[in-house]
Design a protein that fits this description.
By secondary structure, this protein is α/β, with parallel strands linked by helices. The chain has helices at residues 5-12, 58-65, 80-89, 123-128, 212-226, 249-252, 278-302, 335-338, 353-356, 383-391, 405-408, 476-488; strands at 33-39, 68-70, 73-74, 133-139, 158-162, 175-178, 181-184, 232-236, 309-315, 360-363, 372-374, 378-379, 423-427, 433-438, 441-446, 456-460.
Length: 502
Amino acid sequence: MKAPLFLKLCALCSLALFHTKVSATEATRTGSNIVFILADDLGWGELGCYGQKKIKTPNIDRLASEGVRFLRHYTGAPVCAPARCVLMTGRHLGHAEIRNNGDSGNGKPFPGQWPISAKAITIAEALKEKGYATGGFGKWGLGPTDTSGSPIRQGFDRFYGYNCQRNAHSFFPPFLDDDEGIDPINSNPIRGHLRKPEGEILADDYRAKTYAPDRILEEALKFIDAHKKGPFFLYCPFVEPHVAMHPPAEWVDRYPKEWDTEKGPYRGQNGYLPHPRPRAGYAAMISDLDEHVGAILKRLEKHDLVENTIVIFTSDNGTTHRSRDPNFGVGGVDADFFNSTAGLRGFKGSVYEGGMRVPCVVRWPGLTRPGTTDNTPCYFPDWFPSLCDVAGAPHPDSLDGDSLLPLIRNTGKLKPFHRRKPMIWEFHGYRGQLAVMEGKWKAVRQKVRTKKPGPWELYDLDQDPAEATNLAQKHPAVLGRLKKAFLVDRTVSARYPLKLSK
């Protein structure tokens, strides 16, 4: 059995680990329900409310019209597992236990990812201490069910979905994880990676009986029903639009057939599954995700919970990157056709803006001003203290982020938002990448896990959001300050060794 939260806290240090004062709660509607929806690989420009012209996202767009839309919100990492670790634990990527994707190595077909430790403190644990019912529905990616990383051992009362990211490559998998058991949902599952170099491609050849995203949504709605008297924390790390491309036919049919006449079908040459209409198929995945968000919002309305619920919608990283066949991205995604990065540099797997700047919409009726935007740089570590403030819970001292409530609330009763230190990323994937951000300034370093690491680069994001002009030589003092901030505010990880040269 996992040690109680107070014992874990004691193990971290001999000092008192909780602040005696909780910032911002005096002017906050504490005890509100919390709904946190996390898309998977949804790009910066793939929602209507962020300028998308082709893909239909009416529910998320409505959410934005009723709340605040953040224009410089960043993930904790540019790929799945480390981003989720940063989000759940509030520790940036220079302190996080997970700094890259990686399997647990337990020998199973779906092994799950390397687990976070028993001493890790999650948002769910902190909220549970305040009497919140906690439920996770979607993709976990932070440890198999028989390890310390199990969501049930990390503060969640209920979990249903994909524990293993590999299993999540198929939307018609053999099973979904059900707390610490499994729910067999397809006797004839579809593998997530297949090719068809020749012949006609039929979407129905890659469909089975039970569509996993719908089952996950059903369980999330049941959780709301069961805990409508509150308070509850509903965490929905939904799997769309991460490939393989498995969208429902009814959504594919709503998009023009002409879209896919130019390049034709996708045959699986860049990984994952073939699809006869990849552009329509990708749009369909995002629209289906939007429909699921709408179902969550409708259920809140049904139980008259809208006024006492904060809803946050964001994505775990940027859109899927290009691959071997230049006509398609990974899994058949055509990011150029949809302008998925909206002019930002890079894709998923990159610490440039296109890989890390993600949509973020927050609605808290009566506290957020409808239809507003905020340009303050913020990122995943900020959500742990923010949700603690929503709940009236104390902050663990180990957190790297700052509460966003002064930005979310628009009453003027809170102190202005102040960031204590620069935002930091130490990403060990894709040959190793570093990034530091302070206001408009962003420093980037590539290939740090190779024999020839790249030099530090510097960008002024106010003037150059596309990161086209490297200002490292023009502003050496600024770059020096950011480099020092990175070196001071990171810990050495035995699992993720990194020898840094100057």
